[in-house]
Amino acid sequence: MEVLFNSLGLSDEILKAVTEMGFEKPSPIQAEAIPPLLQGRDVLGQAQTGTGKTAAFGIPALEQVDISDKRTQVLMLCPTRELAVQVTEELRRIAKFKKGLKLETVYGGDSIERQIRSLKMGAHIVVGTPGRVMDLIERKSLKLDFVNYVVLDEADEMLDMGFREDIDTILESVPTERQTVLFSATMSKPIMAIAQKFQENPVMIKITRKEVTNENIEQTYFEVKQRAKIEVTCRLLDAYDLKQVIVFCNTKRKVDEVTEELSLKGYSVESLHGDLRQTQRNQVMAKFRSAAANILVATDVAARGIDVSGIDAVINFDLPLDEEYYVHRIGRTGRAGLTGKALTLVGKDEKYRLRQIEGYTKVKIDKGVIPSFEDIVGVRKARFIEQVEQAAKEGDLDVYQDMMAVLQHNTGLSAEQVVAALVKINMGVQKSDFSDHELAWGEDDRSRRGAERPFERGNRDDRGGYGDRGGYGDRRSSGSFGDRGGRDDRRGPAGGSGSFGDRGPRPERRGMPGGQPGMVRLFVSVGRKDHVQPRDIVGAIAGESGIPGKVIGSIDIFDSYSFVEVPERDVTKVISAMGGNTIKGREVSIEVAKS
């Protein structure tokens, strides 16, 4: 039997808002989660971004808030400021007709004084990142004595960012008589440990990968030489006539490079990564939402929580550092029943990564053929003809009709030459620095004779794959780890303060490239006197180089220097990425440790 929103027993205010938003039928996670939450049950849900889980936990929260009581009754924890803002905006839309409801979003990077003032005025629902919530609790500005509904959204991400200890402290500060809602993309042992400790007989809900993968998204990959990725990105933007696009990169440095290159080529582009202040982030997103900029280049963490309708496509300039991130990325397009495209650029050494993504998503990703320069010119010509026809239909051409005679008289050009020159100026096509055969590394692209249309789905062969978990390319060593505001007591991923193992000072090991096979020992020019802790080194290296924090090996910290082990394959990447960067505000040099 089909479930509709009007059959869930929602209040008229909520039902009216949901209907106005254009939704009649709840998503699978909403249909399964809302009824038990309305009944007061705890819920443990496994669901990815883009499945509609905000409404799944948000609607029951809004239904039970007592507007007449100004005290905080609902607390929602999110891993990043972007997701916290997105959740708040979604709640505001759902609560449009629930008069008098007050929501407050709290996160690092925004004025804590302003947040304190807002909380003093009363906030029925508080959405925030764990670090800032802890700050406000310690300042006695956020009181949780009357909270009866707690949500942990994307709990696995919060653990990966080192918030386990904060989560425990926060949940222990909330009355035991409450509902606890936990959503996570994975059900790891740490997640289950939290559920066992803080939930009471929760209803288990799991959205399978088949349900997570949006059938409205056309997924295509292209075999691209690394140095030709910008050129191919431009050709895809033109060939598909994309109006609103997110281009994903793994590191903020690559985001800056791609943004600059696309801007120089005349595209309207903005960047989003962890170096931007919150006011800058807000300005960037305002431009993107209003279409003042139609291309957004972003890292995974910075783009976490972006909720913009009508995104035509996602371009994976870099293959993501985790299979789950691929799902998160492509979930930005193809929403609300619309179609979308996920276009992935795959280097020759990345085939194994793509193969693992396909295994994880259970979806075959079709191989595409890179558009040729002639294809792009053809597309632009067709588009120009449409624009000319439209302008003619709109009329008001009298004021311009004498221009042909003026141009011919002043230049001595024929009418055909004048038209051709105007078309060239309008189309803006520049001769490519690459010949068509220099773009793709696959043998099938050495000759384009007889190839299918370039931006149609191609043959299924040679799909590649993916490696271990990484991400958080925006963890800044000199600032916040995730969204912890000014707090410096940063914990390691997933396991609290001891999750990196016992990385206190050890006797220096000389003459060893690495303590474990396949690892190389690096010298880092900061130590105890710089107040550096292992998690600072891990956060900086993972954030700057894009390698997963969990692959970093043992760390030895001495008074004025430290040693850290990284996989041999990542040595060059780490040293290059860390050049000129800082840890705890100190500029560092990093090199292979001498024997």
How would you sum up this structure, described in words?
There is one protein chain. This protein is globular. The chain has four domains: 5-211, 3-Layer(aba) Sandwich (Rossmann fold), CATH 3.40.50; 213-370 and 440-465, P-loop containing nucleotide triphosphate hydrolases (Rossmann fold, 3-Layer(aba) Sandwich), CATH 3.40.50; 374-438, no CATH class; 469-595, Alpha-Beta Plaits (2-Layer Sandwich). The protein starts with 11 loop residues before the first helix and ends with a strand. It has a seven-stranded parallel beta sheet, with helices on both faces. A seven-stranded parallel beta sheet has the order 10-11-9-12-13-8-14, sandwiched between helices. The protein has a four-stranded antiparallel beta sheet with strand order 16-17-15-20, with helices on one face. 36% of the residues lie in helices and 14% in strands. By secondary structure, the protein is an alpha/beta fold.
